[in-house]
Amino acid sequence: MVTAKAATRPRRLSFRRLERRELTWLMIGVAVCLLLWGFLKLASEVMEGETHALDTRIVRALRKADDPARPIGPEWLENSMLDITAVGGPTVLGLVVLSVVGFLLLQARYRTAIVVLATAASGELANYAMKNVFLRPRPDVVPHLRDVASSSFPSGHAMESAIIYLTLGAMLMRLAERGITKIYCIGMAIFLTLIVGISRVYLGVHYPTDVAAGWMFGFFWASLCWIVARRFESETGVAEEKHKAE
Fold this sequence. Notes:
Elements: H1 4-47, H2 52-61, E1 63-64, E2 67-71, H3 75-87, H4 90-106, H5 110-134, H6 156-175, H7 179-202, H8 208-231, H9 233-236, H10 238-245
Antiparallel strand pairs: 1-2
Helix pairs in contact: 1-8, 3-7, 4-5, 4-6, 5-6, 6-7, 6-8, 7-8
């Protein structure tokens, strides 16, 4: 015979799981709000010129004192940075997105493919819009080691790397079963995002605040898209596709 105490245990466990889920959503929501606030605060200071002195000091510190056209460090480091910065460029990111979307389509995960494609496309539009709003000139204190054409704030490479690599990292985390594998997926996504941003400052095509703003907005946008996808995944059928593909 089932006692009343035993009968209440499943309810308590279910309630605790619900509490943890709601707490997780609350923490994610707070983090998203902080990222947006940080981006807007930094954008305000950049537009007022309050960060220009620090930006200039950092960019110049990465060049040789006797020749601003030459970056500090060995020659292989400059070549490596040129390769790394391409990892966050539109060509490479576009190929990555198309490759992942193609894989998802072959796995019959159509709605998941749409989520990835929509996140990448919306991030590109957001980047284009903000560059045309702020119109910050590129750094002119040192020669550029990479050809650039668009405005400087925020860094499109940093922003779009954050959006795409974090989105893919989160997607791989959901597919992984072991905890260490989940940490590896998101860790590699963050690592790729960081080194792409650092390469932009090293090459003299962005101020540090451009990259910081790109990171913040990219993290914000990726988190926002992830929240929307998770919140409505039962309605969009993403959860069902996951089980079908297994």
